[in-house]
Design goal:
Layout: E1 5-10, H1 18-32, E2 36-40, H2 52-58, H3 62-73, E3 76-80, H4 90-100, E4 104-105, E5 108-109, E6 117-123, H5 131-143, E7 147-148, E8 153-155, H6 171-192
Parallel strand pairs: 1-2, 1-3, 3-6, 6-7, 6-8
Antiparallel strand pairs: 4-5
Helix pairs in contact: 1-6, 3-4
Bound molecules: flavin mononucleotide.
Length: about 190
């Protein structure tokens, strides 16, 4: 059996983002669970705000196609996003929307979402850890056909939640992250068999 391939990304490209730190912590955890993790930053795949006229005129941007291919090539997704007014970041939503417009290219069909195993996470400076955002993200990914693991992570007090090595200092949050990554790794391994 080959190692399950997981694509890990943050819905924030802000310097010092606590969600990016959470993705870093998850990456270390997933590697412990024998996953092959591809860690990307959405800063490397800039996209215009989705506009149907733009798509009609110019087609789907290359970066959306590149991302769709990356999604396609992986068994699972780990996504952490900031909570903005109770929902996911516009950066992440825009990326998800553009990628959903890519279903095929010259090399054959691309399946970026349907049947992938997914896990979601959030970190926020407040006590609720971005839990409201997680409901929205789960709904969107489920609608796109991603099979989400039941476990998830919502890290509260995010600005003091990590040590210098980007490990979670709060034992309960660390346990949630461990359980989420373990579940993602196990289910993605079944898919990969
Ligand atoms: C427009 C906006 C709306 C926000 N809304 C919420 C919110 O609803 N809940 C919350 O916990 N934090 C909220 N925040 C604070 C973010 O959680 C905080 O900026 C966080 O650090 C962003 O994630 P990042 O560090 O990964 O970039 C909001 C921030 C902005 C800029």
């Amino acid at each position: 059996m080959t190692a399950p391939k997981i694509l890990a990304l943050s819905g924030s490209i802000r310097d010092g983002s606590i969600n990016t730190r959470l993705v870093d912590a998850a990456t270390a955890e997933l590697v412990q669970h024998e996953c092959e993790v591809t860690r990307i930053s959405l800063a490397d795949y800039p996209l215009p705000i989705y506009d149907g006229d733009l798509e009609s005129q110019d087609g789907i941007p290359e970066n959306a196609k590149k991302l769709a291919r990356l999604f396609h090539e992986h068994d699972g997704l780990f996504i952490a996003s900031p909570e903005y007014n109770g929902s996911l970041s516009p950066l992440l939503k825009n990326t998800i929307d553009w990628v959903s417009r890519v279903s095929s290219d010259e090399k054959g069909d691309l399946v970026p979402y349907r049947g992938k195993i997914g896990a979601v996470a959030a970190a926020s400076p407040g006590g609720m850890g971005g839990i409201s955002m997680l409901y929205h993200l789960r709904e969107i990914l489920t609608r796109l056909g991603v099979l989400l693991v039941a476990e998830q992570v919502a890290v509260g007090n995010g600005f003091s939640a990590f040590d210098d090595m980007d490990k979670l200092t709060d034992e309960r949050s660390a346990q949630f992250l461990e359980a989420t990554c373990k579940s993602l790794a196990q289910k993605a391994a079944l898919l990969n068999r």
